[in-house]
Recover the amino acids of this structure.
């Protein structure tokens, strides 16, 4: 059975296995988009079953695989085995970048989408933080924004008290999640961060894909605005 689930026009998500990172257990989720040029763009890849792989390749040839946040870069290693013909794109390298082995990287993501997917996306490197250089995407056709680690709404994990404790003290445990406390403190250039927030809120979106927690299908802009209220003061 395929795990590919539609999230809007030409956009799908796939839930992956849980992974351990920084002593906590996290859910994983990848986004799959069919571009106007008929090829497939994948963000934050997860290992998929043969059925799911087949349903993705049925959509079109997978040409671009993207890791938009430092803690997801290691996943490209497995993705290049599942999609050997795809280009690999990453966010700017920081001290938090988690990478396994050498990767044949095609390019680094910036504020300007490369011509390959510029018809379909706006993108933005959320600035003002030296540790987390996450790139956000706005998929125009489905009015969806993709945010990976910046906003987290982690659900309690059964049998993992340390994970749940970490989520709670970091302020990223559902239903009270958002931008984690440590991340808020590591924004050293808040003016620059406010500029990024302004660009993000200028996008015409109502749906939101996040990597950790439930995605939002209506009125996502007010949700994002609320989760960044701390930055406005
Ligand atoms: Fe993550």
């Amino acid at each position: 059975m395929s795990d590919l689930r539609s999230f809007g026009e030409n956009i799908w998500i796939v839930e992956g296995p849980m992974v351990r990172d920084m002593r906590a257990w996290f859910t994983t989720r990848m986004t799959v988009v069919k571009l106007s040029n008929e090829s497939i763009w994948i963000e934050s890849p997860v290992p998929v079953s043969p059925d799911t792989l087949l349903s993705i390749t049925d959509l079109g040839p997978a040409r671009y695989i993207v890791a938009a946040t430092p803690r997801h870069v290691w996943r490209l290693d497995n993705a290049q085995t599942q999609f050997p013909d795809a280009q690999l794109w990453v966010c700017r390298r920081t001290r938090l970048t988690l990478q396994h082995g050498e990767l044949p990287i095609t390019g680094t993501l910036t504020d300007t989408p490369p011509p390959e997917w510029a018809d379909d996306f706006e993108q933005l490197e959320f600035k003002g933080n030296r540790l987390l250089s996450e790139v956000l995407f706005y998929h125009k056709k489905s009015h969806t924004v993709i945010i990976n680690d910046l906003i987290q709404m982690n659900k309690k994990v059964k049998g993992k008290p340390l994970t749940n404790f970490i989520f709670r003290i970091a302020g990223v445990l559902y239903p009270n999640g958002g931008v984690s406390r440590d991340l808020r403190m590591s924004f050293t250039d808040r003016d620059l961060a406010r500029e990024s927030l302004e660009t993000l809120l200028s996008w015409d979106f109502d749906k939101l894909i996040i990597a950790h927690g439930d995605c939002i299908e209506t009125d996502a802009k007010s949700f994002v605005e609320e989760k960044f209220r701390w930055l406005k003061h």
Summary: The longest strand covers residues 11-21. Residues 26, 71-72, 148-149, 211-212 surround fe (ii) ion (CB under 6 Å). The chain has six helices and eleven strands. The chain has a mean pLDDT of 96.
